[in-house]
Write the structure tokens for this entry.
Amino acid sequence: MGHHSCCNQQKVKRGLWSPEEDEKLIRYITTHGYGCWSEVPEKAGLQRCGKSCRLRWINYLRPDIRRGRFTAEEEKLIISLHAIVGNRWAHIASHLPGRTDNEIKNYWNSWIKKKIRKPAVSTTSSSVTTSSPPRSTAASDAAALGHLQTPFGAAEHQLDAIISQSLALPPKLGAGQADSPPALLPPHCPFFMFDTSVSVSPPPSLTSPAAQLQLPFLTFTAAAMDAPGFQLPPLVDGIDMGMATMDCGLGEERGHDDHEGGNNGQAAGMANGGGCFYGQQQKQQEEEQLGQDQWDDESAQHLLMWDDDQELTPSNLEAMESGAHSLLFMGPNDHA
DNA sequence: AAGACAGACAACCGCGACCGG
DNA sequence: ACCGGTCGCGGTTGTCTGTCT
């Protein structure tokens, strides 16, 4: 039931592949190729459906498969790519030679679970912890994380450029280092990942029960950003988190990190999971049009940002939350 | 030593896209 | 334009294995 037409025949074996089956498939593919997968099982003498053969070949038997643990570079790349394209594993896999979408998907899912299993916030900030949404299953958490990922289909064609440039950014993207911009990012190119294991205390203005009730996540993140000494925890071991804003789409870049409190993350915020990319000039134009307080405008629905001069208040957050499709992230930013 | 548990990995399932008739 | 077959993708489940109690 529910099988594909190619799998409807009787005697179709399922489950794990035996070494003999593997050998048959390898022998057939290497001598004949796999023009039509639906014909492969019969011609190869396998009692499998073509789909199963294809999967087995692509995910396991292919000669160029690269097995073993993911390297730190691969991890960084996966994280960056996932933040850009979301759960498009095949697309991500296409940028990691020898890795399969299935492998990356499995890796990501287990990695997500690992991260989520960490307590959301330390016991020292129980008010924030209790304000977080209930965490029940890894699946729902992954879905919640997915919600934070910005749909980025429009920029997909720019992926290669983004990767090659962003991952090659220098460790710090200071204000004076505007010579390696990810200039191909579109005008609206928010990017953000976070780790809820950060341990911070929220500012008093955000710890009221009402604010927590209404803005659990934003309250938390904003509080995290505001905390003295705040530093995004690494999403990948050994890789510092960082943030950056920069012009994109207009060819002019202003990059900065070093949020107050010593966020000394690497500028490739997109490489290590903390960051925001936003077209600065367009942002200014929008602010002129909208006014500083109107964050729920349609044009801001996919923005995730912190702001140079916008004070973080519950009302701001409320407006942001109501208008955000992806995620908004904002707070006073006092870099130069 | 044995059972419970969690993580890693393999495989399946359903759906949508594509293509040729 | 429609339809059926095929393929590719992403989500989900199943299984194995290592670790902990």
